[in-house]
């Protein structure tokens, strides 16, 4: 094979392995996303923008002392108010079958129930949203889905944090 031929084959292989990583398998995702500079930015943002506070069990109570391997797996603590009971979802499973473009589109349009600060997500710059996505893919899928949303009046089985009704405006 000519010199050029080897080069072309290497490129084809590189492209193929990139595609292979899109299947959500943790090992491959680590290899692909782990090298990107945006991983560090994603790690930083999930710490300072509050994502871990709610989406990582025990994060708030331990002042952030949760090993990274357990980050963003969702929480079974319910948030209860006029809206019913919500649970911070497992973000690593959430992005498992989602493309980066779908994630950005979701962040621009989604209006979740309280106390998810969806309006903060909507205001994020594209590069920051992409960094969070890549960090989630780098961490890889793990854990279980968080408990499902319960409409108002439906009893939660686990612990809940109750929000009082806001004063009338
Ligand atoms: C104060 C707690 C809290 C914080 C902070 C928080 N979340 Fe959430 N998040 C939730 C809860 C609770 C839900 C479930 C809401 C529902 O059931 O509608 C949720 C849902 C979501 C969803 C699912 C959207 C959907 O309905 O499809 C995404 C994505 C998400 N959060 C991402 C993030 C990211 C990224 C951050 C950090 C920038 C973050 N969250 C910070 C509590 C929080």
Tell me the span between the first and last alpha carbons. 76 Å
Identify low-pLDDT runs: 10-24
Cα-atom radius of gyration: 19 Å
Structural class: mainly alpha
Please give the largest β-sheet.
Answer: 3 strands, mixed
Element order: H for helix, E for strand:
HHHHEEHHHHE
Morphology call = globular
The helix tally amounts to: 8
Strand order of the largest sheet: 2-1-3
SS elements, strand count: 3
Name the bound molecules.
heme C
Helical amount among residues, as a percent range?
A: 40-55%
Instruction: Average the pLDDT over all residues and give the rounded result.
Output: 87
Strand percent estimate: 5-15%
Task: Describe the fold and architecture.
This protein is mainly α and 169 residues long. The chain has a domain at 29-74 and 91-143. The chain is built from eight helices and three strands, in the order H-H-H-H-E-E-H-H-H-H-E. The protein has a three-stranded mixed beta sheet with strand order 2-1-3, with no helix packed on it. A hairpin with a 2-residue loop joins strand 1 (78-81) and strand 2 (84-87). The model is unreliable at 10-24 (pLDDT under 50). The structure holds heme C. Heme C (HEC) binds next to helix 4, strand 2, helix 5 and helix 7.
Q: What's the layout of helices and strands?
A:
Elements: H1 3-20, H2 26-33, H3 38-48, H4 51-55, E1 78-81, E2 84-87, H5 91-94, H6 100-109, H7 118-123, H8 126-139, E3 160-162
